[in-house]
Amino acid sequence: MYVIVVYDTAAKRNPKILRTCRKYLHHVQRSVFEGQLTEAQLRRFQATVEEVLDLTYDNVLVYTFPPGTTPIRHEWGATEPTPTDVL
Amino acid sequence: MPTAARTYWLTSPCRIRRKDESLVIEREAAPKVHIPITDVRDIIACAETDINTAVVSLLNRHRISVHLLSYYGDYAGSLVTSDTSTSGQTVLAQANLAQQPSASMAIARSLVDACAFNVRRVVDRQLLTAPYTTLQASIKEAETPLHLMGAEGTFRRSAWEVIDTKLPDWLQLHGRSRRPPRNAGNAFISYVNGIIYARVLSAVRLTPLHSGIAFLHSSLERQRHSLVLDLAEMFKPLFAERLLLRMASRKQLKKHHFDTGTNQAMLSEAGRKLVVQTVRDELATSVNHRSLGRPVAYDELIYLDALALTRHCLEGTRYKPFRIWW
User: Would you write out chain A's pLDDT as a tens digit for each of its 87 residues?
Assistant: First the structure.
């Protein structure tokens, strides 16, 4: 399923969550990640996030889309390039 | 096949690095890109690629193979992960089948027939009817794989000539030439064939079959994956010939997509990118599968064919090589 992850964490824990996200998803903006994950991968991702963050202070949002669908994306301004598989 | 992961195609010179247990692609011209390791099924490197031990161990842990195409676009080799899916029982059954002359010749015959059927289907049914009938007759008479390959060669020659009549002058093949390809058309065919070889290798490695024990090509010779050569045979026309004819008639291929020298040609960087994108989209195209009753992507057809061969080895279900049915 298609997943968008947004996080808001304390500065000292930023690198940790960034590293975790990079293993699973494409970096599209400073604290925004998106990509295709399976249910199992999402659960694994969630478990890792719970380990590295202090959930009494940090906040992570995960938007999931029904299988087989991808959200339509509109971009303005200088953005990171759209994730592609032809490099 | 895992559905979430994708194949990554590298079309410009780059270095693959490991960073934070994931991958970074560093390129000269463009900024570096982070790739989530869980999103990679395999990597096809169509341009110079640097890779180091740290990356290889990470790739191995995630069961990701890297297929490398050479400067001229032929298949140069692969970094394949250590075998996980081969099963002793299947490999023995496969070897046993390959050793029985009658059984292995039956498979080899059907492979050649299916390949020619597909070529005729994509190129021209009318003009290739006569050569195809001749081929079918010589397939019946053939006693060794060598005879079969000879007969196939004859059929292929007539097919190349028919293809030439449908191409603009500058793309014409004038007979197949490889290593290096003589002209633009041949460069295109070689390039796509290299990619298809890599895809078939990936598919075969998902099944318990041994990639070296073949039925038509000689087994384990010159360190090639002979079984992959066997299976790639039927899929080459579906991509190489078909896309060449299509892209030529749509005038998508331009002269600047090729670097042509004296008596040799290769795809330029722009051409490489165009071809890779076209093949990638084509692999994702799906058709309705009759017996499965659901749409199946061309990429998956390759896997299904390898599975059918596995079943033939283990259970004796008759293996019918892939034919274009639509």
Answer: 889 999 988 888 888 888 888 888 888 888 899 888 888 889 999 999 888 888 888 888 999 998 878 888 888 877 666 777 777
Nearest CB partner across the interface for A85, out of B7, B12, B14: B7
- Judged by a CB distance cut-off of 8 A, whether residue B25 touches chain A is yes
Cross-chain Cβ contact A37/B34 below 8 Å: no
Q: Which of residues 33-72 of B touch A (CB under 8 A)?
A: 33-39
From the number of C-beta atoms within 10 Å of its C-beta (0-12, 13-18, 19+), residue A69 rates as exposed
Q: Is the ipTM of this complex over 0.85?
A: no
Instruction: State whether A23 and B33 contact (CB < 8 Å).
Output: no
**What is the per-residue pLDDT across B105-138, written as a single tens digit (0 to 9) for each?**
888 888 888 888 888 888 877 777 877 887 778 7
What is the pTM (predicted TM-score) of this model?
0.81
Q: B59 by DSSP, 3-state: which?
A: helix
CA-to-CA distance for B163 and B172, rounded, in angstroms?
A: 8
CA angle B158, B161, B167 (to 5 degrees): 145
The candidate with the shortest Cα–Cα distance to B250, out of B166, B191, B311, is B166
Q: Look up tokens 């034919």; give the residue.
A: B323
Q: Is B280 on the interface with A (CB under 8 A)?
A: yes
Burial class (CB in 10 A: 0-12, 13-18, 19+), B294: exposed
Nearest residue of A to residue B16 by CA position?
A: A87
According to DSSP, the β-strands at B33-35 and B40-45 are unpaired
- What does the alpha-carbon distance between residue B114 and residue B274 come to, in Å, rounded to a whole number? 29
